[in-house]
Design a protein that fits this description.
172 residues, mainly alpha
């Protein structure tokens, strides 16, 4: 894998296509799960809104495609985030954003903080463990390295935003 891809080269265009697909799936899954962005965990994405969020992501894709390794890390992370969004999207749509938020908030108040933390950190640490194993067994600048790093980045993002959301609930 080349370090950098010149604009318009086949590596650039392939990476750009993968990025647009992956970021598009993240946006589509978010739109499916939370049309008003009320349940969006990322405050920056919520602040941007749909129009500016799409423009920002297109610019991100165009810029990141110059570095295929970074592009594939972002592709992996984005597709895993999209899969997570789709996993819960049906329930968010069935209940509505407000009712879903109240349901989760009520469940958080019924649960112990320890049980929640074990669940979130158990999921993310195990995912990071698999990604980390892929990273340490990979050659530098390789496809497996990018995928493993994307898995680790996903687990960090899920842990961060999950803990950020409950921080607001627990310490209001």
């Amino acid at each position: 894998m080349e370090d950098f891809a010149p604009f318009g080269s086949s590596d650039y265009l392939i990476t750009l296509g993968l990025l647009i697909f992956a970021r598009g799936m993240d946006i589509l899954s978010t739109r499916f799960a939370t049309p008003t962005l009320a349940l969006e965990a990322n405050p920056f994405a919520r602040w941007l809104g749909w129009k500016w969020g799409i423009i920002f992501n297109l610019a991100l894709c165009l810029a990141t495609a110059f570095w295929p390794l970074a592009g594939l890390i972002l592709v992996t992370t984005s597709l895993l985030v999209a899969a997570r969004n789709f996993k819960s999207g049906w329930l968010m749509r069935a209940l509505g954003e407000g009712e879903y938020s109240m349901l989760v908030g009520e469940a958080l108040h019924r649960s112990s903080r320890g049980a929640y933390l074990v669940s979130v950190l158990g999921e993310t640490m195990l995912f990071a463990l698999v990604g980390g194993a892929v990273v340490v067994s990979s050659d530098w600048e390789s496809l497996p390295l990018a995928i493993g790093t994307g898995m680790v980045a996903y687990s960090v993002a899920v842990a961060f935003y999950s803990l950020l959301a409950v921080w607001r609930t627990w310490w209001r």
